[in-house]
Design a protein that fits this description.
mainly alpha, two-stranded antiparallel sheet, 18 helices, 4 strands
C-alpha cells in the first residue's frame, strides 16, 4: 500500500475539530467525576489515538477517549483520596496507575489470542444480525445518559433552570440539523455542522448566563509548569492487589465494547476493519493507548461512538482527520488556557449535539439491517435482534436510574465493577447466534461485514 501523505486543507481542519468537539464532553467528564487531572486525560486521549492510528496502519478512523466502564472503580479508589498531588492521592493514584497499565497489557494478550484464532472465525461470531442491533443500541443507550448528565442534571440539582438548559440544547441541535440538511454540498458550512452547532450554542449559552468563566485564566500557560503536582504519584507507584482486582477485570467489558465499535465503524465506512488491518491490531492499538494512559496518570481509553456519529454525518472517513484531531487534543491539553476555555462549554451544548449524534448511530445500525436484507421471518434472526434490543435497552434504563438517583443498587455491578449494558447485549447476541438453531430447511444466515474496499 502506498504511504499516505499528510496534507491538510481548511476543510480537513474543520472535520478534525468536529471530531475533537464530539469526544470532548465525555472525555473530560470521567476525570472530573473521579478526581483525576482533566488536562492529562486530554493529553492521554490524544496520544492514545495517535498510537492507535499508527498501529492500525493509518486505516481505521477511530478516536479513543475516557472509558466510563472504569468510572465506579476510579471513584472508589480516588474520590476520598484528597486533592490531586496530595500524599494520599499520590498513593491511591500510584496503585491505580499500575492497575491501568496491566489492563492495557491484558488487551495485548487478548489481541494475540484473537490473531491465533483467525479473522474468519471471529467474523462468524459477529455477523450482521448480531452487530447491527448492537450498533442501534450504542445510540439508544448513550443518548438518554448524555441528555440527563448534560441537560437535565443541572436543573434537577438546582444549579440551573430548565428553560436555559433545554433552549441551549435545542438551539445547538437545530443548528446542526439545519446546516446538515440545507447546506450546499461541498460548501464550507456543510462539512462543519458540529463545530458551528457548538459555536452557536456557546454564544447563546454565554448570552443567557450558562458559560462559567470561574476556572478560566488561572495564570498557568502549560500544564508542565506544575510537574511536581501532575506526576507526583510516580514516587508512590505500588502494586495494590485490591486495586488490581477492582480494575483489571473491567478490561473484558471494554474489550466487548471495542469489538462492537470496530464492527460499527466497519459498517459505517463500508470497509472490513476486522480483516484489514485486523481486529488484533485494533485491540493492540487500544491496549497501547491504555498503557500510555496508565503511565501518565490518565483514565483508561476506549473507542468512542461519538466519533462514529461524526463519520456518519460528514461522510468523510479519512483516518488522517482523526490523527489531526488527536494532535489538537494533545495541544489543548498541554496549553492550559485552551483546556480551560474548552471546559467552559456549557454541558447543554454537548447534550444538544448528542441528541443528533447518537440518533444517527442508531439509524446507521437500522440501515445496515435493511441493506443486508436480514430476513426477520427467520426465527433465529428475529430472536437475536429482539433479545439484544430488549435486554440492552432494559438494562440501559436500569443503569440510567442509578445515574439519576445515585443509588448503586440500580447499577449492573459484579463486586465493585459496573458492567456495561452494551457489553452484556453484545455477549448475548454472540451466544444466541451460536446456540440458536437455524429454521428447518434453511441454509445458515452467515452474512458478514462488507468486504474491504482497497484504497491502496
Amino acid at each position: 500500500m502506498r504511504k499516505q501523505k499528510l496534507k491538510y486543507t481548511s476543510k480537513d481542519v474543520m472535520l478534525s475539530l468536529q471530531h475533537m468537539f464530539a469526544m470532548l464532553g465525555a472525555t473530560v467528564l470521567v476525570p472530573i467525576l473521579s478526581n483525576m487531572n482533566v488536562s492529562i486525560a486530554l493529553i492521554t486521549a490524544g496520544l492514545g489515538t495517535i498510537a492507535f492510528y499508527f498501529i492500525t496502519e493509518r486505516k481505521v478512523p477511530v478516536f479513543l477517549g475516557s472509558s466510563f466502564a472504569f468510572l465506579p472503580a476510579y471513584i472508589a479508589i480516588l474520590a476520598g483520596a484528597g486533592s490531586i498531588g496530595s500524599n494520599t492521592w499520590n498513593r491511591a493514584m500510584g496503585g491505580l496507575s499500575v492497575a491501568l497499565i496491566l489492563t492495557g497489557v491484558l488487551y495485548l494478550v487478548f489481541a494475540l489470542i484473537v490473531k491465533k484464532i483467525g479473522v474468519k472465525k471471529m467474523k462468524k461470531i459477529f455477523p450482521v444480525v448480531v452487530i447491527a442491533p448492537v450498533v442501534i443500541l450504542i445510540g439508544f443507550i448513550l443518548a438518554p445518559k448524555m441528555i440527563y448528565s448534560n441537560i437535565v442534571a443541572s436543573y434537577v440539582t438546582g444549579s440551573s433552570v430548565a428553560w436555559k438548559e433545554w433552549s441551549c440544547a435545542i438551539i445547538t441541535a437545530v443548528t446542526i440539523v439545519a446546516i446538515n440538511s440545507f447546506g450546499k454540498k461541498k460548501s464550507f458550512f456543510k462539512v462543519m455542522p458540529i463545530v458551528i452547532g457548538f459555536l452557536v450554542g456557546y454564544i447563546y449559552g454565554l448570552a443567557i448566563g450558562l458559560v462559567d468563566f470561574q476556572n478560566i485564566f488561572s495564570g498557568q500557560i502549560v500544564i508542565f509548569q506544575d510537574l511536581k503536582n501532575v506526576f507526583s504519584f510516580y514516587s508512590s507507584m505500588n502494586i495494590n492487589f485490591a486495586t488490581i482486582l477492582a480494575v483489571v477485570p473491567i478490561a473484558f467489558v471494554s474489550i466487548m465494547e471495542h469489538l462492537g465499535d470496530i464492527s460499527a465503524n466497519s459498517i459505517v465506512c463500508g470497509k472490513d476493519f476486522m480483516t484489514d488491518p485486523g481486529i488484533h491490531k485494533t485491540l493492540t492499538g487500544d491496549g497501547v493507548a491504555g498503557i500510555i494512559a496508565g503511565a501518565m496518570g490518565g483514565p483508561a481509553n476506549t473507542t468512542y461512538g461519538e466519533n462514529t456519529a461524526v463519520l456518519i454525518m460528514t461522510k468523510n472517513y479519512n483516518p488522517n482527520n482523526i490523527f489531526l484531531a488527536a494532535c489538537f487534543t494533545v495541544f489543548f491539553g498541554i496549553f492550559t488556557p485552551f483546556a480551560e476555555f474548552l471546559s467552559s462549554i456549557p454541558p447543554a451544548v454537548i447534550g444538544g449535539a448528542s441528541i443528533v449524534l447518537f440518533g444517527m448511530i442508531s439509524v446507521s445500525g437500522l440501515r445496515n439491517l435493511i441493506e443486508n436484507k436480514i430476513d426477520l421471518n427467520k426465527t433465529k434472526n428475529l430472536m437475536i435482534i429482539t433479545l439484544v434490543l430488549s435486554i440492552g435497552l432494559g438494562l440501559g434504563s436500569i443503569s440510567l436510574i442509578g445515574d439519576v438517583t445515585g443509588n448503586m443498587a440500580y447499577k449492573l455491578m459484579v463486586g465493585g465493577v459496573e458492567i456495561s449494558p452494551l457489553a452484556i447485549a453484545t455477549v448475548l447476541g454472540i451466544l444466541l447466534n451460536i446456540i440458536l438453531p437455524n429454521d428447518k430447511d434453511e441454509k445458515p444466515d452467515i452474512k458478514e461485514l462488507p468486504n474491504l474496499k482497497d484504497d491502496s
